[in-house]
Write a structure and sequence with these properties.
By secondary structure, the protein is of the alpha/beta class. Helices cover 23% and strands 28% of the residues. The chain has helices spanning 26-37, 72-85, 134-138, 148-151, 167-176, 196-204, 305-327; strands at residues 14-22, 42-45, 59-60, 70-71, 89-91, 95-99, 105-109, 114-122, 126-128, 144-145, 159-163, 182-186, 208-211, 214-223, 226-235, 244-248, 251-254, 258-260, 291-293. Strand 11 (159-163), helix 5 and strand 12 form a beta-alpha-beta unit.
Length: 328
Amino acid sequence: MKPLNPPASATPLHRAENLLILGSGPAGYTAAIYAARANLAPVLLTGLTPGGQLTVTTEVENYPGFAEPIMGPQLMQQMRAQAERYGTIVLDDIIIRVDFAASPYGLVADSGTEFRAKAVIIATGAQARWLGIPSEEHFRGFGVSACATCDGFFFRNKRVAVIGGGNSAVEEALYLTHHAAEVILIHRRDSLRAERILQDRLMKHPKITVMWNQEVLEVIGTDAPRKVTGVKLRSISDKAHPVEQTLAVDGVFVAIGHEPATSLFRGQLPMDKGGYLLSAPDSTITAKPGIFAAGDVKDKIFRQAVTAAGMGCMAALEAEKYLAQWEG
């Protein structure tokens, strides 16, 4: 692997490690806890978003072990402290280059540190695609969400909007009917991309209304307290004479897809057409011996903190078994 060219005043630090864990969400920290307790001397690199997606979540009510809601950032702080308590070395750094041609594998961090690792657990997660409007960012976590199963409970008997037209949007809308009084699906086009069976369920559901050919211009709300009160829409069916309107809603769920943080591994590891890493059935083992994938980098179905944590546990146990071969 060709080293980066650091500044003249800097000398790259070379580290040989037993196990590197990439990512600091529930999958990464759980893997670190199990690996540290197994005396694997894990080193965890936090990545671009220390703590993962839960750091932009307010109250978490569905993580086992907490009878009262816990704030997302607080939950991740506790996970980090638990991992460090058992001996995990946590580095606030980002891997920017990998060479998985042969073990021990080569990885280069943004700091210039060059690692050689016998085993690697990839838990870099995924990010929801967002609309990219400033008001959406302002109200994220205060009525704007990208996860109905995470936040739908907070909108019991409320009116909510779902943005999108694919499988994810339709599934989110159907799920929200278990909580919300009314669900409005807003789509930019005049037809859905979702599977026909999902479309049929959507159209037959008495709680769901579809608004076609609508573009979201702005999320509207208040700041004291910070909450969503509506969305501003523009009809795009007649581009020459667009019509704007304001729709009153209590919550906005953006469901235009997710992107796994796996671009770094293209050409190094097999992945599906969506960029999710592939692993053996009922396992976190990838096509490369000693490289494991856990959490949202391989899970495009559930995308829950608790399932990610479970896969982190699996990855650590499988890494322990793999590393035992080196000792032999």
